[in-house]
Structure prediction request, 399 residues.
Amino acid sequence: MQTVITLREFVTKNFYIPPGTALDDTTSFLERGIIDSTGVLELVTFLEGHFGISVADDELVPANFDSLGALAAFIDRKRG
Amino acid sequence: MTGHEVVLSPAEAAGEIERIVGMLREAVRGVRRKGVVVGISGGIDSSVVAALCARAFGPTRVLGLTMHEDESSDDTRRLARFVIETLGIATLDEPLSMILAAAGCYARRDDAIRMVIPDYGEGWRCKLVLPSVVDTEQLRISSVVARSPDGREVRARLPAEAYLQVVAATSFKQRTRKMLEYYHADRLNSAVAGTPNRLEYELGFFVKNGDGAADVKPIAHLYKTQVYQLAELLGIPPEIRARPPTTDTFSLPQSQEEFYFSLPYQQMDVCLWACDHDVPASEAAVALGLTPAQVERVYRDIAAKRAVARHLHAAPVRL
Prediction:
């Protein structure tokens, strides 16, 4: 739960959430235009720095990065 | 859908040349200019634009600028000269390396690359590459590929700060070229012709206030396939028509697919047409020889690129 809160804070502080877009745990970053490819790079830097995980190239897929919920689940898996 | 929707008949291609020539004359007259300046790269797009301008205004009112720098390929220099001689247009050579070095183009880029490849320096060469949209679900995140003087190749994903600095620094190249095109255009009371084709224009494959700047863009409505068709009718030499499209922005050879587009231009044209005509991915996949999942990924990539291109096309925000 704390992971999602931390991620939500980072995303809302650092990316543009279009007016009228509710950022719930399943909101698609890519479909809603919240995060572009540069944003993914910023997100990776944040994940690696804040959560102490290392993200491999083949883990950079929508299934891991496209929503707060997907990100939190990915981080949990990485941290074992 | 057959996959041939973007191909013009011979009569359509000839008619399109006449239509563009007429509209070019109107457009340049409309901005009260007497001729055109075109940056010539030796690629198909600038060759076709120069040929169309030569038809519209006569070769003496078209200035073809060649603007090489230390990292330009030898082919670029040779083929640019070849196009200019073939068309018989006026020409000037504007070497860029000293301007780029003074602006810190190379040093700032190399500093950014050293954030992930500390050994990078004198004698190394580099390019940016993206994962394939067709072969993988991976998000399109750029990596730098660098080759040492002794041939060792290193690939590293760039953090946002380094990636943005590499792109910002290399954009000096397109912006410097455009600055020189406008210098000569102003001096000659001419307009600047831009050279993007439809794929580049719509999907944002250009630098804002760099190669994206122009007074007129004669082929921005044409699919790349159509540009090649016009090239043949306009007498562009076979060697230029056979040359694979490159970016000629980085010191290592780089295809447009590995840097920006999802597919070779022939398939990309068809995919863009299909996407714009709401053709289901399953139907487009048959025409393209791809799977529906691959076409879906290309459609998503087109949408993402268009979102970025909106900013690139936008006029400044007035408050």
